[in-house]
Specification:
5 strands, disordered C terminus, 5-stranded mixed sheet, mainly alpha, single chain
C-alpha cells in the first residue's frame, strides 16, 4: 500500500510520496538513522504537490484550524486534487500520513481517505521538516524562517486573546505592593512615634492612629508653641474638640525634652512622607477594588477583594486558580504546614489564605473546618465562572455568598439551606432578567432620542413658517394654521375684487366673466402655494387691472 505524507509548513501545504520506504527500512530506528542523510532520504520520499498560502491571514487561519483538528476547504480541495482517486465501490490503495491524529480522523470522516499517525509516519515527517527547503527549489531557507517567525508571532497573539480589562497580572502586582506598603507604613509610623516622643511623649497615649499621629506631628512641630487658639485646628485634624483640648493641656505640662529647629524640621518632613505613603495606600486599595471587580467579580463578591487577590496571586493567575480543585484551594497558602504534617504524620491544616475571610471567623470552633471546606468549594466555582465566562457579571457570586450565609445559619440554628440547583437556576434567571432590562432601557433611550429629534424637527418647521411674512400693514409674521392664512388671503383679495368690479362696470357680461374665472383659478393656486407678501400681490393686481383698462 502506497503511503502519502501531508506536511503543514508556514508557507503552505506539501504532499509527499513515500515510495522507497523499503530502501531505508520499515522500522522506526532505520528511519531515524536515514533522516539526517539527504541523499538516502531523498530516494525514499519525493515531493508530489505544494500549494502556498495566499497571505499571512490565510496562513494563520489554516494554522488555527489544524491546531483545533479541523480540515479546511482549501486542504480538502488540495488533497482531492493531488491524491489518486479510487474506483467507485472500492477502497483506496494508499494511506495518508499526518502529524495530528485529530486532523486525520476528520479527513477520513469527511473525504473517506484512510489516514494514519504513528511513530513511523512522524519520523518520516520529521525528515521532511528537516529538508523541506531542499525539496522546493524556489523556496529559500531564509524565506521559510521568516514565514515561520511571523506565523509563530501571529498564532501566539491569537491564542493569548489579550484583553486589557482582564489582566490578572496587575492584580498580583497590586496585592504584593499593598502588603509591602502595609509593612513599610507600620514601621515608618513606629519610627515617627519614637522620634517625636522624645519631644512630646504624652501624645502617644492620646492618639492611637498612625496616620493621625503623623498628621499631628507635622502640625504641632514644637509643643511649646501650642496655645488655646490652636484648638479649632487640632479639632479639625482629630475630629474631637475634647481630645484637642487634652492635647493642648498635655503640651503645657509635657516632660519631653526640647529639640533644635533642624531636628524638628526633619521630624516634620518624615511625618509628611508617612502621610503621603498612607494616602497612596488608600488609592492603591481603590485601584485593587476596581481591578478585582473587572477581572473576578464573582470571586470578589463572594470572599472580598483582598482575599480574592491573594488567592489569585498565590496561584499565579486566575486560570491557574480556576484549575485548582476545591481541596487544593482550601489549603492554598498553608503548604509548609501541610508538608510538615505529612512528614510527622500529624493533622493536616484545615485552611490557608481563606482563613482571612469573615465567614471562617464567624463560624464556631468546631465548625471552622467544615466552613472552610464549603467556602473553598464555592470559591472554586466562582473562580471558574470568572475565568471562562464571556459576560462579566457578579450575580453568581452574590448567590454563592447567600449560600454560604445559609450554611452558617444551618450550623448555628439548624435552618435547612437551599439546594445548589435551585440557587443556580435563580442566578441564571436574574442574569437573563438583568440583560433584558438593559436591552429595554437601551430601547427606551433610543425611542426617547427619536422622539426628541422629531419634536425638534417640528419645532424647526414651525419656526421656519413663523419667519415668513404674512401681514401687509406691519410686515410682521403671525403664527397660525392654514385656515387662518386662507382667511387672511380672502380678506386681502375682497377689496381688490371690488376695485376691479368698479373698473369693469360698463363692460359686457362675457368680458366681466372671464376675469372672474381667472381670479378663481388664482385663488386655488394661492391656497396651494406658500404664502406671499401682500406687496407682491398688490403689484400683480395692479398690472391685471391696467391690462383690463387697455382691453376696454
Amino acid at each position: 500500500m502506497a503511503l502519502y505524507l501531508l506536511f503543514e509548513s508556514a508557507s503552505g501545504y506539501g504532499l509527499f510520496h513515500a515510495y522507497g520506504v523499503d530502501e531505508i527500512g520499515q522500522s522506526v530506528d532505520a528511519v531515524r538513522s536515514s533522516v539526517l542523510d539527504l541523499d538516502r532520504f531523498g530516494k525514499a520520499v519525493k515531493l508530489t504537490a505544494f500549494t502556498p498560502f495566499s497571505s499571512a491571514v490565510d496562513a494563520l487561519n489554516q494554522c488555527n484550524a489544524i491546531s483545533e483538528g479541523i480540515m479546511t476547504d482549501e486542504l480538502r480541495s488540495f488533497l482531492e486534487l493531488n491524491l489518486p482517486k479510487p474506483k467507485e465501490g472500492k477502497k483506496a490503495k494508499y494511506s495518508l500520513g499526518v502529524v495530528e491524529p485529530k486532523v486525520g480522523s476528520h479527513i477520513s470522516e469527511v473525504t473517506g481517505i484512510p489516514c494514519q499517525s504513528n511513530e513511523f509516519v512522524q519520523e518520516l515527517l520529521r525528515g521532511v521538516r528537516l529538508h523541506f527547503d531542499r525539496f522546493i527549489n524556489e523556496l529559500k531557507k531564509s524565506d521559510l524562517e521568516k514565514a515561520q517567525l511571523g506565523l509563530g508571532h501571529s498564532y501566539s497573539r491569537a491564542k493569548v486573546k489579550f484583553n486589557v480589562n482582564r489582566v490578572d497580572n496587575m492584580v498580583i502586582q497590586a496585592i504584593f505592593l499593598l502588603d509591602t506598603l502595609d509593612k513599610d507604613i507600620n514601621s515608618f509610623s513606629m519610627r515617627v512615634r519614637e522620634w517625636f516622643s522624645w519631644h512630646f511623649p504624652e501624645l502617644v497615649k492620646i492618639v492611637n492612629d498612625n496616620y493621625l499621629y503623623a498628621k499631628l506631628a507635622k502640625f504641632i512641630v514644637n509643643k511649646s508653641d501650642l496655645a488655646e487658639k490652636d484648638i479649632p485646628a487640632l479639632a479639625d485634624i482629630v475630629g474631637d474638640e475634647d481630645k484637642a483640648k487634652e492635647i493642648v493641656e498635655a503640651a503645657k505640662a509635657s516632660m519631653g525634652q526640647d529639640l533644635s529647629a533642624v531636628d524638628l524640621i526633619n521630624v516634620q518632613q518624615f511625618a509628611q512622607r508617612v502621610m503621603n505613603l498612607s494616602e497612596y495606600r488608600k488609592n492603591l486599595y481603590e485601584y485593587l477594588v476596581t481591578k478585582m471587580n473587572d477581572i473576578a467579580p464573582n470571586l470578589t463578591s463572594l470572599i472580598g477583594e483582598v482575599v480574592g487577590a491573594r488567592l489569585i496571586s498565590h496561584a499565579g493567575s486566575l486560570s491557574n486558580l480556576a484549575k485548582c480543585p476545591a481541596s487544593t484551594l482550601q489549603i492554598l497558602g498553608a503548604e509548609k504546614a501541610l508538608f510538615r504534617a505529612l512528614k510527622t504524620r500529624g493533622n493536616t491544616p484545615k485552611y490557608g489564605l481563606i482563613f482571612h475571610s469573615s465567614f471562617i471567623g464567624r463560624a464556631s470552633t468546631k465548625n471552622k473546618g467544615r466552613m472552610a471546606r464549603y467556602l473553598a468549594n464555592k470559591c472554586s466555582i466562582a473562580s471558574r465562572i470568572d475565568c471562562y465566562s464571556e459576560a462579566s457579571t457578579s450575580v453568581f457570586g452574590q448567590k454563592l455568598r447567600e449560600q454560604v450565609e445559609e450554611r452558617l445559619d444551618f450550623y448555628d440554628k439548624g435552618v435547612a439551606p437551599r439546594k445548589n440547583l435551585d440557587v443556580m437556576k435563580a442566578a441564571i434567571e436574574s442574569m437573563v432578567d438583568g440583560t433584558s432590562k438593559d436591552d429595554n432601557e437601551k430601547a427606551d433611550a433610543s425611542a426617547k432620542k427619536s422622539k426628541k429629534k422629531k419634536s425638534k424637527a417640528e419645532a424647526d418647521g414651525d419656526a421656519m413658517d413663523l419667519d415668513k411674512p404674512s401681514n401687509v400693514a406691519d410686515e410682521e409674521a403671525e403664527p397660525g394654521t392654514e385656515k387662518k392664512k386662507k382667511k387672511k388671503k380672502h380678506k386681502l383679495e375682497e377689496p381688490q375684487e371690488q376695485e376691479n368690479g368698479a373698473a369693469h362696470a360698463n363692460g359686457d357680461a362675457e368680458e366681466n366673466g372671464t376675469p372672474k374665472k381667472k381670479k378663481k383659478k388664482n385663488r386655488e393656486v394661492s391656497e396651494e402655494a406658500e404664502p406671499k407678501t401682500a406687496t407682491e400681490g398688490k403689484k400683480k393686481k395692479k398690472k391685471k387691472s391696467k391690462a383690463g383698462d387697455d382691453d376696454e
